[in-house]
Amino acid sequence: MIPKKIPFLFTACALLMLFLSSACKQEQDVNVTSEPVVTEKPVVERDLFYHYSIWYAFVNKVFEGDLTVSKLKTKGDIGLGSYTKLDGELIMLDGVPYRATEDGVVSIADDADKIVYVNATFFDEDISFKVTDSINYDALRGEINKHLPTKNMFYGFKIHGTFKNIKCGGLNKQEPPFKEGLDVLIPNRPIFKAENIEGTMVGFYCPQFIGDINVAGYHLHFISDDKKFGGHVMAFNAVSLDVSIDEMYEYQFVLPNTDAYRKVGFDKQFQYKKN
């Protein structure tokens, strides 16, 4: 005959074991959740040339893109290009994306703004030199050519200086349906001029083999130190310049994922004449 107290003891022991098991699990949970969570930061490719949208799509009236300014900021801290619908020239300096519109007004773009075409990189100086005599755009190209180890690589530029005068171009904002391509818009672009101004030219050099996907040769945009004047560099006479060059050997090419790009025909051909 089993004493009546035995089942009670079994029950008490079972409850005690259940309590101890639950307490142990809670302690383990606390220990797990109390450990710091380490989040790995994305690796930034410092010698990577980032390029969004093929140049000839841009030439053939693909004027709306799906790249946002916030995304661009993850791809570089200098850059040049154009915003969607050609609503301003893009000049990115030190990670700040400026917009120079057709009326000559310069502002900072919003993260949600869209871009139709852009080149960008995280700038790391590899080569530098100073220009202490008066120099124009053509002469600067020649001087830079002397300092390039090879013209078969890609290069980014930050060129700060004092300009006796400078001429910059913009683009007139377009609305769909788009009727004219860059072959018509660029020769008739708005032009802005300034005298006795300090600022920075940012831009890139692409080898001639780049073909139709990008601008071959030199391509520079300008932003003044006071951030009130900017655009695509057409001509200048500089008093002095500090030239910084970043050599790049990797190229990331991203196409727009839009209906306009999927349907475009590459009928028009157009490149800047000066390289």
Automatic annotation (TrEMBL):
Molecular function via GO: acetolactate decarboxylase activity
Gene3D superfamilies hit by this protein: Hypothetical protein, similar to alpha- acetolactate decarboxylase, domain 2 (3.30.1330.80)
NCBIfam families: acetolac_decarb
Record family assignment: Belongs to the alpha-acetolactate decarboxylase family.
Taxonomic path: Bacteria, Pseudomonadati, Bacteroidota, Flavobacteriia, Flavobacteriales
Broadest EC class assigned to this enzyme: lyase
This protein's record includes keyword Nucleus: no
EC number(s) on file: 4.1.1.5
Record keywords: Acetoin biosynthesis, Decarboxylase, Lyase, Signal
GO biological process: acetoin biosynthetic process
Keyword Lyase assigned: yes
InterPro entries per record: Acetolactate_a_deCO2ase
Protein name in UniProt: Alpha-acetolactate decarboxylase
First and last residue of the signal peptide: 1-25
Pathway of action: Polyol metabolism; (R,R)-butane-2,3-diol biosynthesis; (R,R)-butane-2,3-diol from pyruvate: step 2/3
CDD domains: acetolactate_decarboxylase
Reaction(s) catalysed by this chain's protein: (2S)-2-acetolactate + H(+) = (R)-acetoin + CO2
